[in-house]
Each structure stands twice: as C-alpha cells, then as structure tokens.
Amino acid sequence: MPINITMPALSPTMEEGNLSKWLVKEGDKVKSGDVIAEIETDKATMEVEAVDEGTVAKLVVPAGTEAVKVNALIAILAADGEDVAAAAAGGGSAAPAKAEAAPAKTEAAPAKAEAAPAVSAPITDKAPAPSTPAPVAKSGERVFASPLARRLAKDAGLDLSAVSGSGPHGRVVKSDVEKAVSGGGAKAAPAAATAAPAAAAPAMAKGASEEAVLKLFEAGSYELVPHDGMRKTIAKRLVESKQTIPHFYVTVDCELDALLALRAQLNDAAPRKEGAPAYKLSVNDMIIKAMAMALMEVPDANVSWTETNMVKHKHADVGVAVSIPGGLITPIIRHAELKTLSAISNEMKDLGKRAKDRKLKPEEYQGGTTSVSNMGMMGVKHFAAVINPPHATILAVGAGEQRVVVRQGEMKIANVMSVTLSTDHRCVDGALGAELLGAFKRYIENPMGMLV
Question: Which residues are catalytic?
C-alpha cells in the first residue's frame, strides 16, 4: 500500500512552510532516518527524515514551493515489494483530508481539482480574507497556478491563461511568471482588469492596499519583492506587540571602564586549545550575564503576562537579537544566570553562526524570559526596542563611547554606554523597571560581582 509523506509540523506554532529542496528523487530507495528534504519555516531551514522504508514513487510538491500547509501531501513512497508506478498512481487516495497540497490530477474531476491546489494561501492572523479567484482561460477552463504565481502575475499585469506552466500537470509556478515578465508576457485581459478594483476592496478595509500605494510611484521606478515567511512573521508579531503591549521605557547610562578592564584580563588569561584561546569574551557576553543576574535579583520583573495569571519564571532565559538576511532572530541562552561568561560566549558564537545559516531548532529560539538587542557595534548611541511576546522586557544597548562625566565636582573622561529597558507596563511598571535597570547597571559597573 502506498505510504503518504506529509508536510511535518516542525514547531508547535507552524502552520505552513516552504519546501526548499528535495534530497531524494523519484525511484530512490530510502529507509527510516534518511534525510529526504529541507523545509524552510519562518526562521530556520530544517531537515526532514523519512519515517518509513520504501521507494520514492512520486514527489507531489516540487522543490521551491512556498506556503505548503502542515499535513499536506508532499510525496508518496512505495512499500517494499510494491509496484512503484501503481503506488504513484494510487497514492493520496487513502488520505483525502491531506490531498489539499496535491496538484489536480485530471480534468475529469473538476470539483476535486478545485479543492486541491498544490500550495495553500498564506494564513493571516485574522479571519481569512476572500481568496483571489482562480484565473480562467478564454476557453472557460480553469488555469491552475500557485497562489504566489497568481499574486506575481496580478502585480505584473499578466494574463495567466497566456503563461505556459512548467509545474506538475501544467501548473503555473513562480518561475513561469518571472520568465513571462522578463520576456514581455501577455498583459492581463480587460475582463480581469475590470475585476481588479472589486478584488482590492477587502484589502482596502485593512488599510492602504498595494494598488493604492503603487499609484503614488512612477511605473517602472520600482520592483516588487514578495514577503518571505520570516518577514511576514516579524511583521505579524511586531504589530501584535505594539497593539497589545503598553510599552514603557527606562534609560540609564552605564560606565564601562571596569568591565572593559576585566574583560581584557579574562581574555588574556584564557587557556589555549590547539593554539587558539578557549574563549574570547565580548562586551555583549557580559551584558547577557548582567541582565540574567539582574532578573534573579529582581524576580518580580522576570515574568510573562497572561489574561488570567502572571507567569513567574525561575530562570533567566535571555534571547539575543541576531541580524540575518531578511530579518532577525533571537536565539536563547537558557539559564544564563547559572553559566560562566566563557560558557555564554562560546554558546552565543555557536547559536549566532547557526542563526545566520538558518539552522536553529525551534526550541533554540522560541520562548525565553527577556531579550537583549545590541546595536552598539553599529554605532547607534540610543534606541528603544519593541518587546517580543511572551517577554515582558527587552534591553536596547547602545554604543560605548568616551564621554565627559562629573565625579566629586571634577570632570573626567569615561567610557559610557546608554541602555534603554522596554517593559510591558501590565506586569513591569515604572518603579519595577527602574529597579531592574538599577541592578543591571550595578553589575556592569562592578563586573566582579558576575564572577562570584
């Protein structure tokens, strides 16, 4: 009996993903544990292993397909001893609920074909908006195309019925539309153009539509770059944060001379392994430790808000904002208050590298009790960061620079860093935020306290 392979849920919140690469081809034999594909979620690219043993009979969803829903059929295996061709033809029929990701098989079953696009439309945080009507050829037959291909064709003013599809069963995919655009493909038919204002109406209700925005710019003076999953997720979470969390901001200046001196001393004393130091501390490593210890000193600020309870955390799990192409991600140093500076430094280097390669596991960037966002290395003096739910705080770190300070009535030169704490005022009010920031300042200006 054919074995259906479906899009796995790689995290508790995953609803869809991009099938970025197949690592097998039709006819290959696989066994349990073999890596067969790479799936791109909003924040990472993860490998998918085969659960069953057999021969790859059919790759239902082609590599590069975006927004494939969890549990959608993506491939079919033929069990040992089973005819591969028969499995390819019969696979998927035993799981109609998962067939929504399979391309239409024949024109003899238009009702099923209508309900079975290879890729689902992106899921929004509100009630689903009316989907874009499927293009119809002049002969009256439906033109099968992925949602992304439809959107790109609409943006470019292309008539999809004039575009040749290279996907399964002639399905029009992203590359087909891009080829048609670069080659001066057919423009949309007048009927489609007439229907465009009506289709744009639901989008207008949410704010300025793309069409309304583009009218402000000269034709040909811009290009449209589709949002990827990461950018959509960042946008959704930041809008949620600003709409639901009452942000409150507290700023202090911290003198860094003692910390810089201790950092240099610790780095000079680092043992060497194979000719290289066992660790190399950064200022950011010490900031992570100071924030974690400050939360332990002020436990009422180490919380998360829910509508029914205050979630009080027993450890400081510090997320650290890392810039990656297309957005940012916050890998988490778990139990940071218990770890040495060298352990934090080495763990952060590993997490940062894998974050840039988009190889983090969901449990390495989901959750946490607070965040640190450091833009000091970019020369930024001061900024206020947006809280990342379910956190109640985030620390924005500016650049350390030489400034004039007054000590006992005399002017001195000191290295000073400005930090701003954003708090969720529902659970960390002004006084509590000031207490937390005061504890952080003490650890930064008296860094030996982080070593005992």
Answer: 425
